[in-house]
From TrEMBL:
<dbReference type="InterPro" id="IPR017850">
    <property type="entry name" value="Alkaline_phosphatase_core_sf"/>
</dbReference>
<dbReference type="InterPro" id="IPR001952">
    <property type="entry name" value="Alkaline_phosphatase"/>
</dbReference>
<dbReference type="GO" id="GO:0004035">
    <property type="term" value="F:alkaline phosphatase activity"/>
</dbReference>
<keyword id="KW-0597">Phosphoprotein</keyword>
<comment type="similarity">
    <text>Belongs to the alkaline phosphatase family.</text>
</comment>
<protein>
    <submittedName>
        <fullName>Alkaline phosphatase</fullName>
        <ecNumber>3.1.3.1</ecNumber>
    </submittedName>
</protein>
<keyword id="KW-0732">Signal</keyword>
<dbReference type="Pfam" id="PF00245">
    <property type="entry name" value="Alk_phosphatase"/>
</dbReference>
<keyword id="KW-0378">Hydrolase</keyword>
<feature type="signal peptide">
    <location>
        <begin position="1"/>
        <end position="23"/>
    </location>
</feature>
Length: 476
């Protein structure tokens, strides 16, 4: 992480926002939010070490704003309570407590010694992806399990809805099932993230998004091999069998695509949409585009899966047709899955795929838009795995060890679950300085060897506020 440019270290004084359904004069035309799900700071660094042999070489390393975000949920509940019961507070100073502890954190992959009080604090009461994406998409904290749903049992309006009301297009792209928590946060509303059928049905039937892309194909397995569905459950991620049949028959607003060739043609602008103006891409995989394939090592990628950069370029081809602009969310969703598995080779593989996608977006802005017309925000929804250095059992927060390009860094995992670590946020374009205006100083971040200007954090809800302010939409 590099220095925040001095010109952006100032409070932002904005004009009044426009009425809902219209963009304020002088607003940003486009907002692109890229989320690498479950990436602790050292996930980013491990990928950069492996790919480049050092830090400072990724596209986001040149962004104007480089800070951190807090990511805790509203409470400890998993359904609406309508009360303050189990309310969670967050004290960043508690993270750095290096007092030794003899606790054990139970995990799925292993059990993890506590080592330091700060580590225990980070493992306690983390957000799940549903509450996290609700914060990112609506600006509201909520209970774990909620998709744009409040603790008072009401729907929450997300940034995708605001964007469409303002006349813009909406796009949602992911490497996991497109009804999974993070993409669902920009497509639907539900009391439970596990209602995949309901989430997918809402996404398709509302027609809110011009582009939806991800996995969850009912006729392919996790290795991208054709299969015959054995039960209706195989169709859950695409809204059930009936919704899938409607998509296949053309009885929805969406052109359904699944083959890698179609995704590549869309990215080149040569795909025949057969009269449709919207695209729903469901790649030939039931699980993730790559992570869940057989084995645990990196390499030998499934040949029939488009990479995230190709999917993103295809989405941009469609939504950029809207003369009023767009909001696009892109997720590297399987980074989180690799962290849960403590799988270093594949978390790096997934993060590199994400980083190449950031490059594709930056390239698109340079060639087909401008930084005055497009705000790009790059972040994660929460930490996962608490990836630290091999000596982090003896020295609190010691860094991972770079072994050079093409070699895995030396690391130590401290959990196989989510954490409430402060996580990176990078922003560039008109409106990026919003994060600087709301950030709080946190000198403890110096332990990560980041410059003083980057030792500050905003909250994950500020991603919504930055997006809404940039788009010039009035928040209800």
């Amino acid at each position: 992480m590099h220095l925040v440019k001095p010109a952006l270290i100032a409070l932002v004084v904005g004009s009044a926002l426009a009425p809902a359904g219209f963009a304020a004069e002088g607003a940003t035309k486009n907002v692109i939010v890229l989320i690498t799900d479950g990436a602790s700071l050292n996930t980013w660094r491990a990928a950069s070490y492996y790919r480049h042999g050092g830090l400072g070489h990724e596209a986001y390393d040149d962004f104007d704003v480089q800070l951190f975000l807090s990511t805790y949920p509203l409470n400890t509940a998993k359904e609406p309570t309508g009360s303050n019961f189990g309310a969670i507070t967050f004290e960043s100073s508690a993270i750095w407590n290096a007092a030794p502890v003899d606790t054990i954190a139970k995990g799925t992959v292993a059990n993890y010694p506590g080592y330091f009080a700060g580590y225990d604090y980070l493992r306690k009461d983390p957000t799940d992806s549903a509450a996290a994406v609700t914060a990112l998409a609506t600006g509201h904290k909520t209970y774990n399990n909620a998709i744009n749903w409040s603790n008072t049992d009401t729907r929450l309006k997300n940034i995708g809805e605001y964007a469409v009301e303002s006349g813009r297009a909406l796009g949602v792209v992911t490497t996991v099932q497109w009804s999974h928590a993070t993409p669902a946060g920009f497509l639907a509303h539900n009391r439970s993230r596990n209602d995949y059928v309901g989430i997918a049905k809402e996404a398709v039937e509302s027609g809110l998004a011009s582009v939806i892309m991800g996995s969850g194909h009912p006729y392919f397995d996790k290795n991208g091999k054709p299969m015959e569905p054995k039960a209706d459950k195989a169709f859950q991620y695409v809204g059930g069998r009936d919704t899938w049949e409607k998509l296949k028959s053309g009885a929805t607003p969406y052109k359904l695509i699944s083959t890698k060739a179609d995704f590549e043609a869309l990215a080149k602008g040569t795909l025949d949409l057969a009269g449709k103006t919207k695209v729903l891409g469901t790649v030939e995989n039931s699980d993730t585009t790559q992570f869940n394939r057989a084995g645990v090592a990196a390499g030998d990628l499934l040949p029939n899966q488009p990479d995230l950069a190709t999917m993103t370029r295809g989405a941009l081809e469609i939504i950029a047709m809207d003369p009023d602009g767009f909001f696009l969310m892109v997720e590297g969703g399987a980074v989180d899955w690799a962290a849960h598995a403590n799988n270093l080779p594949r978390i790096i593989e997934e993060q590199v795929d994400f980083n190449r996608t950031v490059e594709a977006v930056v390239d698109w802005v340079g060639k087909k838009s401008s930084w005055n017309d497009t705000l790009v925000i790059v972040t994660t929804d929460h930490g996962n795995g608490m990836l630290l250095g091999p000596d982090s059992n003896k020295v609190a927060f010691s860094g991972i060890v770079n072994q050079g390009a093409g070699a895995l860094p030396l690391v130590r995992w401290h959990t196989d679950g989510h954490t409430r670590e402060l996580v990176p946020v990078y922003a560039k374009g008109k409106g990026a300085d919003f994060f600087v205006s709301v950030a709080k100083k946190e000198p403890g971040l110096a332990v990560y060897d980041v410059p003083a200007a980057a030792q500050a954090y905003a909250d994950n809800t500020d991603v919504f506020r930055a997006s809404a302010k940039a788009l010039g939409v009035k928040v209800d």
